Amino acid sequence: MQKKYLTIYDDLVKKIKGKEIPVNTMLPSENELTVQYETSRETIRKALNLLSQNGYIQKIRGKGSIVIDVHKFSFPVSGIVSYKELSKQLHLSSKTIVQELGFIKEDEEIGKELDTTLEHVWKVIRTREISGEKIILDKDYFNNQQVPILTKDICENSIYEYIEGQLGLTIGFAQKEIVVEEPTEEDRRYLDLEGFSNIVVIKNHVYLEDTSLFQYTESRHRPDKFRFIDFARRIQG
Amino acid sequence: MQKKYLTIYDDLVKKIKGKEIPVNTMLPSENELTVQYETSRETIRKALNLLSQNGYIQKIRGKGSIVIDVHKFSFPVSGIVSYKELSKQLHLSSKTIVQELGFIKEDEEIGKELDTTLEHVWKVIRTREISGEKIILDKDYFNNQQVPILTKDICENSIYEYIEGQLGLTIGFAQKEIVVEEPTEEDRRYLDLEGFSNIVVIKNHVYLEDTSLFQYTESRHRPDKFRFIDFARRIQG
DNA sequence: GAGTGGTCTAGACCACATC
DNA sequence: ATGTGGTCTAGACCACTCT
């Protein structure tokens, strides 16, 4: 049995995306929805809060909930966190080339950040090619206790689906940092940098549900193809 | 009377920041907190969900809520939306210089995006100087129906505090976009760009509670001083 | 005054972790 | 078996908007 508030959320998203409930119109009131879905008001409110957090509606006290259209903008690298979402976005018409796959050498700093008790840390370097140009350099580091096996084949498809699907690991939270750096020798070797003198770096720390650091990722983008969109709600109260 | 779940949230944040509840320790259980704060469990859960969303704790089913330390990293330009937060961050040891203040000319595109029925749209250009260098160029556009008066003095201090405090407007949500562009003539005139050939642009659309677009802001940063941090939780379920 | 969303309660059952 | 967080209920009162 699916969670009730999620089925209601999914149903409303479907109706909004299918224009059954058009942008700039009001949703039925919370009391009306409790009747339609035969549930309690708090459950309806959980569904509506999800819609609000994800940018589908704006709730207005005393009036109702209005459908907004922030979603008409695409979300290339948004405030994600599901691996499935991430992989969907990264694989939009892009070709992946595995450049390196193995364990890190002992002198690399990242080994200290990931769990210190382990002997080996996976290191994967991949380039993303979009319409014939190598635009993105992805460097992934995994704890090999949680990810025992990693093949070139897995890396060419989706590491994320493998981790969530095959390994069944659950992500707790992630912290992302965006900075601009000068290209390294490695960037110049693996990317079609042309004349660009800067590179946009997205550093991502991924933690498991038990709060242990599980993965560190650097996604290095050519600046002309980089775009980040973020949707934020006002602080509660 | 302050909302109960907010006072509980504030109290727990204070205790976490004051190390009274140290990082990597468990919070009291939800049932215990209902006794401590003399309230219902759902109210406690609202407070804990806020803590979780803001990166203070990680909830683990069957075990409890653990205090995490994502907040040890500073949040220079995070996924905020309160004007007070924004202004606090922007004014950290920075000097503000108002370069231009007036109404836009008719040919500027932004006039179409903001409400079309109005005759005038405020345009403010300011530079932020940090340790003697002009690093950030802020271009703000306001609807003059909601912001009738704007002086150089207000702009030099905090426009945001003026809007929330004096005008009493309530922000609904915001959409932020980050891209990298080549510097314009304006950038070169107002900023200490030295040799940099790229500029990081944060485009911000701010909407009021009634979903009308109220402000558009471009914050143009020299790439070497730019840093963006984002904290994200996993999708519910 | 009627209708809306925001907060709060007291209780219930469930899934999961631990011992 | 006990304790934890996750979901759900049925009802209450409040602040706000609109007519």
Record keyword descriptors for this entry.
elongated, 6-stranded antiparallel sheet, homodimer, 32% strand, alpha+beta, DNA-binding, 8 helices, 237 residues, two-stranded antiparallel sheet
Summarize this, please?
Two copies of one chain form a homodimer. With 237 residues, chain A is α+β, with helices and mostly antiparallel strands. The first copy, chain A, folds into two domains: 4-72, Winged helix-like DNA-binding domain superfamily/Winged helix DNA-binding domain (Arc Repressor Mutant, subunit A); 83-225, Chorismate lyase (3-Layer(aba) Sandwich), CATH 3.40.1410.10.
Give a verbal description of the structure.
2 copies of one chain form a homodimer. Chain A has 237 residues and is α+β, with helices and mostly antiparallel strands. The first copy, chain A, folds into 2 domains: 4-72, Arc Repressor Mutant, subunit A; 83-225, Chorismate lyase (3-Layer(aba) Sandwich). In chain A, 28% of the residues lie in helices and 32% in strands. Chain A contains 8 helices and 9 strands. In chain A, the strands form 2 sheets. In chain A, strands 3-4-5-8-7-6 form a 6-stranded antiparallel beta sheet. In chain A, a hairpin with a 4-residue loop joins strand 7 and strand 8. In chain A, helix 1 crosses helix 3 and helix 2 packs across helix 3 (41-53). The longest helix of chain A is centred in the N-terminal third of the chain and has 14 residues, at 4-17. At the A-B interface, strand 6 and strand 9 of A face strand 6 and strand 9 of B. Strand 9 (227-233) of chain A pairs antiparallel with strand 6 of chain B. Chain A binds a DNA duplex (19 and 19 nucleotides) through helix 3. Chains A, B: Keywords: DNA-binding, Repressor, Transcription, Transcription regulation. Chains A, B: Residues 2-70 form the HTH gntR-type domain. Chains A, B: One of its GO terms (molecular function) is DNA binding. Chains A, B: It holds the Pfam family UTRA.
